[in-house]
Design brief:
about 325 residues; mainly alpha; 12 helices
Length: about 325
Protein backbone atom coordinates (compact mmCIF):
# COMPACT_ATOMS: atom_id res chain seq x y z
CA UNK A 1 0.00 0.00 0.00
CA UNK A 2 2.73 2.46 0.99
CA UNK A 3 4.74 1.51 -2.10
CA UNK A 4 1.76 2.43 -4.25
CA UNK A 5 1.69 5.87 -2.58
CA UNK A 6 5.25 6.65 -3.65
CA UNK A 7 4.63 5.33 -7.18
CA UNK A 8 1.46 7.40 -7.42
CA UNK A 9 3.42 10.57 -6.57
CA UNK A 10 6.07 9.92 -9.23
CA UNK A 11 3.33 9.35 -11.83
CA UNK A 12 1.67 12.62 -10.76
CA UNK A 13 5.02 14.36 -11.19
CA UNK A 14 5.34 12.84 -14.67
CA UNK A 15 1.89 14.25 -15.47
CA UNK A 16 2.94 17.69 -14.20
CA UNK A 17 6.04 17.45 -16.40
CA UNK A 18 3.79 16.61 -19.38
CA UNK A 19 1.63 19.67 -18.61
CA UNK A 20 4.75 21.86 -18.50
CA UNK A 21 5.85 20.41 -21.85
CA UNK A 22 2.41 21.08 -23.37
CA UNK A 23 2.51 24.65 -22.02
CA UNK A 24 5.92 25.13 -23.61
CA UNK A 25 4.71 23.77 -26.94
CA UNK A 26 1.66 26.03 -26.86
CA UNK A 27 3.32 29.27 -25.67
CA UNK A 28 6.79 28.74 -27.08
CA UNK A 29 8.45 28.97 -23.65
CA UNK A 30 7.81 28.65 -19.93
CA UNK A 31 8.28 32.06 -18.22
CA UNK A 32 11.47 32.18 -16.13
CA UNK A 33 9.51 33.32 -13.10
CA UNK A 34 7.36 30.18 -13.23
CA UNK A 35 10.43 28.01 -13.80
CA UNK A 36 11.94 29.42 -10.60
CA UNK A 37 8.70 28.90 -8.66
CA UNK A 38 8.40 25.28 -9.82
CA UNK A 39 12.08 24.66 -9.05
CA UNK A 40 11.75 26.16 -5.55
CA UNK A 41 8.62 24.10 -4.79
CA UNK A 42 10.18 20.80 -5.89
CA UNK A 43 13.51 21.39 -4.16
CA UNK A 44 11.82 22.71 -1.01
CA UNK A 45 9.12 20.05 -0.64
CA UNK A 46 11.04 16.91 -1.64
CA UNK A 47 14.57 17.65 -2.89
CA UNK A 48 16.05 18.91 0.38
CA UNK A 49 13.67 17.05 2.79
CA UNK A 50 14.72 13.62 1.46
CA UNK A 51 18.17 14.26 2.93
CA UNK A 52 16.86 15.76 6.18
CA UNK A 53 16.41 12.37 7.85
CA UNK A 54 20.05 11.31 7.62
CA UNK A 55 20.59 11.51 11.39
CA UNK A 56 17.55 9.29 12.03
CA UNK A 57 18.72 6.76 9.43
CA UNK A 58 22.23 6.64 10.90
CA UNK A 59 20.89 6.26 14.45
CA UNK A 60 18.41 3.51 13.54
CA UNK A 61 21.01 1.67 11.48
CA UNK A 62 23.55 1.76 14.32
CA UNK A 63 21.05 0.58 16.93
CA UNK A 64 19.76 -2.27 14.75
CA UNK A 65 23.37 -3.39 14.22
CA UNK A 66 24.08 -3.32 17.96
CA UNK A 67 26.47 -0.38 17.63
CA UNK A 68 26.64 2.80 19.70
CA UNK A 69 25.54 6.09 18.17
CA UNK A 70 26.44 9.65 19.10
CA UNK A 71 24.38 12.41 17.51
CA UNK A 72 27.14 14.89 18.35
CA UNK A 73 29.77 12.85 16.48
CA UNK A 74 27.44 12.25 13.54
CA UNK A 75 26.54 15.93 13.17
CA UNK A 76 30.18 16.90 13.70
CA UNK A 77 31.33 14.72 10.79
CA UNK A 78 28.35 15.85 8.70
CA UNK A 79 29.05 19.56 9.22
CA UNK A 80 32.81 19.09 8.76
CA UNK A 81 32.24 17.48 5.35
CA UNK A 82 29.99 20.38 4.36
CA UNK A 83 32.53 23.01 5.51
CA UNK A 84 35.48 21.34 3.79
CA UNK A 85 33.57 20.93 0.52
CA UNK A 86 32.35 24.54 0.74
CA UNK A 87 35.96 25.70 1.08
CA UNK A 88 36.92 23.51 -1.89
CA UNK A 89 34.31 25.26 -4.04
CA UNK A 90 35.90 28.62 -3.24
CA UNK A 91 39.53 27.59 -3.85
CA UNK A 92 39.17 24.70 -6.32
CA UNK A 93 35.88 25.20 -8.23
CA UNK A 94 36.89 23.04 -11.20
CA UNK A 95 37.86 20.01 -9.12
CA UNK A 96 34.82 20.52 -6.88
CA UNK A 97 32.55 20.46 -9.94
CA UNK A 98 34.06 17.16 -11.11
CA UNK A 99 33.55 15.67 -7.62
CA UNK A 100 29.91 16.85 -7.66
CA UNK A 101 29.25 15.24 -11.03
CA UNK A 102 30.84 11.93 -10.00
CA UNK A 103 29.02 11.65 -6.66
CA UNK A 104 25.74 12.73 -8.28
CA UNK A 105 26.10 10.08 -10.99
CA UNK A 106 26.73 7.40 -8.36
CA UNK A 107 23.95 8.63 -6.07
CA UNK A 108 21.35 8.77 -8.86
CA UNK A 109 22.35 5.39 -10.24
CA UNK A 110 22.45 3.72 -6.83
CA UNK A 111 18.98 5.03 -5.95
CA UNK A 112 17.35 4.28 -9.32
CA UNK A 113 18.77 0.74 -9.26
CA UNK A 114 18.51 0.21 -5.51
CA UNK A 115 16.99 -3.24 -6.16
CA UNK A 116 20.33 -4.46 -7.54
CA UNK A 117 22.75 -6.47 -5.43
CA UNK A 118 25.98 -4.97 -4.12
CA UNK A 119 28.28 -6.59 -6.70
CA UNK A 120 31.05 -4.95 -8.73
CA UNK A 121 29.22 -5.44 -12.01
CA UNK A 122 25.93 -4.07 -10.73
CA UNK A 123 27.75 -1.15 -9.08
CA UNK A 124 29.43 -0.34 -12.40
CA UNK A 125 25.99 -0.53 -14.03
CA UNK A 126 24.60 1.84 -11.41
CA UNK A 127 27.38 4.34 -12.05
CA UNK A 128 26.86 4.15 -15.81
CA UNK A 129 23.12 4.70 -15.36
CA UNK A 130 23.77 7.75 -13.18
CA UNK A 131 26.13 9.09 -15.85
CA UNK A 132 23.40 8.59 -18.46
CA UNK A 133 20.89 10.52 -16.34
CA UNK A 134 23.29 13.43 -15.88
CA UNK A 135 24.37 13.44 -19.51
CA UNK A 136 20.78 13.36 -20.73
CA UNK A 137 19.79 16.34 -18.56
CA UNK A 138 22.97 18.38 -19.05
CA UNK A 139 23.75 17.70 -22.72
CA UNK A 140 20.13 18.23 -23.80
CA UNK A 141 20.46 21.72 -22.28
CA UNK A 142 24.00 22.34 -23.44
CA UNK A 143 23.94 26.14 -23.73
CA UNK A 144 22.33 26.56 -20.29
CA UNK A 145 24.70 24.00 -18.79
CA UNK A 146 27.77 25.62 -20.34
CA UNK A 147 26.72 29.00 -18.97
CA UNK A 148 26.31 27.63 -15.43
CA UNK A 149 29.59 25.66 -15.59
CA UNK A 150 31.59 28.68 -16.72
CA UNK A 151 30.03 30.82 -14.00
CA UNK A 152 30.68 28.19 -11.33
CA UNK A 153 34.32 27.72 -12.38
CA UNK A 154 34.76 31.49 -12.75
CA UNK A 155 35.38 31.16 -16.48
CA UNK A 156 38.43 28.94 -16.18
CA UNK A 157 40.29 28.12 -19.40
CA UNK A 158 40.05 24.37 -18.76
CA UNK A 159 36.28 24.62 -18.32
CA UNK A 160 35.95 26.57 -21.56
CA UNK A 161 37.99 24.01 -23.51
CA UNK A 162 36.05 21.14 -21.92
CA UNK A 163 32.69 22.63 -22.90
CA UNK A 164 33.86 23.20 -26.47
CA UNK A 165 35.05 19.58 -26.61
CA UNK A 166 31.72 18.31 -25.23
CA UNK A 167 29.78 20.40 -27.72
CA UNK A 168 31.58 18.57 -30.52
CA UNK A 169 31.78 15.08 -29.00
CA UNK A 170 28.92 15.00 -26.46
CA UNK A 171 26.63 12.82 -28.59
CA UNK A 172 29.44 10.32 -29.19
CA UNK A 173 30.17 10.04 -25.46
CA UNK A 174 26.48 9.66 -24.67
CA UNK A 175 26.13 6.84 -27.23
CA UNK A 176 29.19 5.13 -25.79
CA UNK A 177 27.85 5.24 -22.24
CA UNK A 178 24.49 3.88 -23.43
CA UNK A 179 26.24 0.92 -25.07
CA UNK A 180 28.33 0.24 -21.97
CA UNK A 181 25.29 0.50 -19.71
CA UNK A 182 23.18 -2.00 -21.64
CA UNK A 183 26.15 -4.38 -21.94
CA UNK A 184 26.98 -4.37 -18.23
CA UNK A 185 23.28 -4.43 -17.26
CA UNK A 186 22.67 -7.50 -19.44
CA UNK A 187 25.67 -9.35 -18.02
CA UNK A 188 24.93 -8.35 -14.43
CA UNK A 189 21.26 -9.32 -14.79
CA UNK A 190 22.18 -12.72 -16.22
CA UNK A 191 24.31 -13.42 -13.14
CA UNK A 192 22.09 -11.80 -10.51
CA UNK A 193 18.61 -10.91 -11.77
CA UNK A 194 17.21 -7.57 -10.66
CA UNK A 195 13.66 -7.32 -9.37
CA UNK A 196 12.26 -4.28 -11.17
CA UNK A 197 8.81 -3.75 -12.68
CA UNK A 198 8.04 -2.54 -16.18
CA UNK A 199 5.86 0.24 -14.74
CA UNK A 200 8.85 1.50 -12.72
CA UNK A 201 10.95 1.61 -15.91
CA UNK A 202 8.20 3.32 -17.93
CA UNK A 203 7.68 5.89 -15.17
CA UNK A 204 11.41 6.68 -14.97
CA UNK A 205 11.97 6.82 -18.74
CA UNK A 206 8.91 9.06 -19.25
CA UNK A 207 10.24 11.53 -16.67
CA UNK A 208 13.71 11.54 -18.25
CA UNK A 209 12.29 12.10 -21.74
CA UNK A 210 10.28 15.04 -20.41
CA UNK A 211 13.41 16.37 -18.70
CA UNK A 212 15.22 16.40 -22.05
CA UNK A 213 12.48 18.63 -23.51
CA UNK A 214 12.03 21.12 -20.66
CA UNK A 215 14.37 24.03 -19.77
CA UNK A 216 17.26 23.15 -17.43
CA UNK A 217 15.71 24.39 -14.16
CA UNK A 218 12.37 22.56 -14.40
CA UNK A 219 14.12 19.55 -15.97
CA UNK A 220 16.48 19.18 -13.01
CA UNK A 221 13.63 19.82 -10.57
CA UNK A 222 11.43 17.18 -12.23
CA UNK A 223 14.04 14.45 -11.99
CA UNK A 224 15.65 15.45 -8.68
CA UNK A 225 12.52 16.44 -6.79
CA UNK A 226 9.87 14.57 -8.76
CA UNK A 227 11.62 11.22 -9.05
CA UNK A 228 14.92 10.83 -7.19
CA UNK A 229 13.76 12.36 -3.90
CA UNK A 230 10.48 10.40 -3.91
CA UNK A 231 12.22 7.09 -4.57
CA UNK A 232 14.75 7.94 -1.86
CA UNK A 233 11.88 8.61 0.53
CA UNK A 234 10.49 5.19 -0.40
CA UNK A 235 13.80 3.48 0.46
CA UNK A 236 14.08 5.43 3.73
CA UNK A 237 10.48 4.74 4.71
CA UNK A 238 10.83 1.02 4.05
CA UNK A 239 13.86 0.89 6.35
CA UNK A 240 12.51 3.06 9.17
CA UNK A 241 9.03 1.53 9.05
CA UNK A 242 10.49 -2.00 9.29
CA UNK A 243 12.57 -0.83 12.26
CA UNK A 244 9.30 0.34 13.87
CA UNK A 245 10.41 3.97 14.10
CA UNK A 246 7.41 5.91 15.41
CA UNK A 247 8.10 8.87 13.13
CA UNK A 248 7.83 6.53 10.12
CA UNK A 249 4.40 5.12 10.97
CA UNK A 250 3.10 6.75 7.77
CA UNK A 251 4.90 8.38 4.80
CA UNK A 252 3.33 11.77 5.54
CA UNK A 253 4.39 11.57 9.18
CA UNK A 254 7.95 10.83 8.11
CA UNK A 255 7.92 13.77 5.69
CA UNK A 256 6.71 16.11 8.44
CA UNK A 257 9.58 14.96 10.64
CA UNK A 258 11.99 15.99 7.89
CA UNK A 259 10.82 19.61 7.95
CA UNK A 260 12.91 20.90 10.91
CA UNK A 261 16.18 19.91 9.23
CA UNK A 262 14.82 21.22 5.94
CA UNK A 263 14.32 24.67 7.47
CA UNK A 264 17.82 24.45 8.96
CA UNK A 265 19.20 23.64 5.50
CA UNK A 266 17.34 26.66 4.08
CA UNK A 267 18.98 28.82 6.73
CA UNK A 268 22.31 27.24 5.76
CA UNK A 269 21.76 28.29 2.14
CA UNK A 270 21.16 31.89 3.20
CA UNK A 271 24.31 31.78 5.34
CA UNK A 272 26.31 30.26 2.46
CA UNK A 273 25.13 33.03 0.14
CA UNK A 274 26.27 35.59 2.69
CA UNK A 275 29.73 33.99 2.97
CA UNK A 276 29.94 33.70 -0.82
CA UNK A 277 29.35 37.43 -1.12
CA UNK A 278 31.99 38.00 1.55
CA UNK A 279 34.64 36.39 -0.66
CA UNK A 280 34.21 39.25 -3.11
CA UNK A 281 32.75 36.99 -5.78
CA UNK A 282 29.69 38.11 -7.65
CA UNK A 283 26.51 36.58 -6.23
CA UNK A 284 24.94 34.44 -8.94
CA UNK A 285 21.75 32.61 -7.82
CA UNK A 286 21.83 29.59 -10.15
CA UNK A 287 25.42 28.46 -9.54
CA UNK A 288 24.91 29.14 -5.81
CA UNK A 289 21.90 26.82 -5.78
CA UNK A 290 23.77 23.96 -7.44
CA UNK A 291 26.81 24.47 -5.19
CA UNK A 292 24.53 24.38 -2.14
CA UNK A 293 22.94 21.14 -3.33
CA UNK A 294 26.40 19.65 -3.90
CA UNK A 295 27.70 20.40 -0.41
CA UNK A 296 24.68 18.81 1.29
CA UNK A 297 24.76 15.87 -1.12
CA UNK A 298 28.29 14.81 -0.12
CA UNK A 299 27.52 13.69 3.48
CA UNK A 300 24.02 12.54 2.47
CA UNK A 301 25.59 10.20 -0.11
CA UNK A 302 27.47 8.33 2.62
CA UNK A 303 24.30 7.76 4.67
CA UNK A 304 22.23 6.56 1.69
CA UNK A 305 25.09 4.41 0.38
CA UNK A 306 25.24 2.54 3.70
CA UNK A 307 21.45 2.19 3.81
CA UNK A 308 21.08 0.84 0.26
CA UNK A 309 23.99 -1.58 0.72
CA UNK A 310 22.42 -2.78 3.96
CA UNK A 311 19.06 -3.42 2.28
CA UNK A 312 20.60 -5.17 -0.73
CA UNK A 313 22.15 -7.75 1.60
CA UNK A 314 18.87 -8.54 3.36
Amino acid sequence: MHKNNFSRITWINALIGLILFAWQQYNGEIPLKFQLIYFAIMIGTTGIPHGALDHIIAKTSAISSGKSFSIQQFLGRYVLAILLYSAAWIFFPGISLIIFLVISAWHFGETDLSQADDTRLWNLTRLLWGCLVLMLILLSHFEETASVVLRITQGSEIAQKTMVHLKINGTRYFSGVISLFFTTAAIANSKKKINISYLYIINLVSILLLCSQLPLLPAFALYFGGWHAIRSFEIIFKFLHAAKEEMAAKPLTMWKNALPMTFLAAFGFIFMAYIWNGTGMKMDPLPAIFIFLSIITLPHLDVMDNLINRQSKQ
